[in-house]
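Weekly structure sync, notes
Attendees: PL, DS, HV (note-taker this week)

Item 1: tRNA N6-adenosine threonylcarbamoyltransferase
DS walked through the input record. Source organism listed as Iodidimonas gelatinilytica. Sequence as pasted into the shared doc:
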Amino acid sequence: MAQHPIILGIETSCDETAAAIVSADKRVLAHALWSQVDAHAVYGGVVPEIAARAHVDHLDHLIRQALSQADMQLCDMDAIAATAGPGLIGGVMVGVVTAKAMALGAGKPFIAVNHLEGHALSPRLTADIAFPYLLLLVSGGHCQLLVVKGVGRYHRLGSTIDDAAGEAFDKTAKLLGLGYPGGPAIELAARSGDPKRFSLPRPLTNKPGCNFSFSGLKTAVRRAAEALESEQGGVHDRDLCDLAASTQAAIGDCLINRTKHAIAQYLEDYAPKAPALVVAGGVAANETLRQRLTGLAQDHGLAFYAPPLWLCTDNGAMIAWAGMERFQIGQSDPLDSPARPRWPLDETAPPLYGHGQKGAKA
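Item 1 (cont.): predicted structure, written out as tokens:
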């Protein structure tokens, strides 16, 4: 065994095929990724069947590429980790079956990683962040505020009651014809737009609690575009930039407002010695949001952490690291662990790793 444990991580939950090798001393020894954006862009969103087939076509090559980058063989790994959910079940199964076969063939432990836990723990790969910390998890499919108390121990303070923030970006970008993926397209257009031109809703911001709502935003943008069509015969480039900027501002206001509520609850209930606000997930790559969250954390005396941009979107390194966090406290999973299209992260759900868990710690 190497001086520091080494884990291979596999990610296939949506439209990124990825493999990475990470060591316990937080070195990313290899990182290989195949983006399927071009394959799905023509449809304006992810097509599950196309995604699953692409995972089949590319995963084996990416694993070989990662091993070659690290100048290692499969026998050098201490465990094999793979996203076992939540996600598009066809893609999840590709990664899980591949990882199980490798673990069985090499005689290594298999670790079934919750994709959301991969995001939740990813900032700890690049920074020393103590538990408990407050996490804003924002992606295309999820929008949650959680207290990360430890590996496998999460307390959800709030979540979206309809669309996720990333979904709101994607739907709005599609509506405006800005392309896919929507988040980067909206952010780019917003740079030259007026965020105050269009009055868009900020649902729940006057309500107590930490839940989000974004479903009415797309409707409001559509109505604004229809009004422009009626008034001036079309939506011009300036209008698109202003709508993008107004959309980004509205989503940002909602995220900041609910996170502010969560900070108060986090500080009161946990009184952490090293209070920290962490953002993770694909939407965490939005530079405007990162800047606003930095200011919010400073205003409340919290340290702020965000992963580097490459670690925000789906990748194999975050899965390898989540596997490493579990491996180091003696946890692994049997080879009959299921692939799961749904897998809640918080404590109100069934135990995070309840299926045949080994060496679990409370």
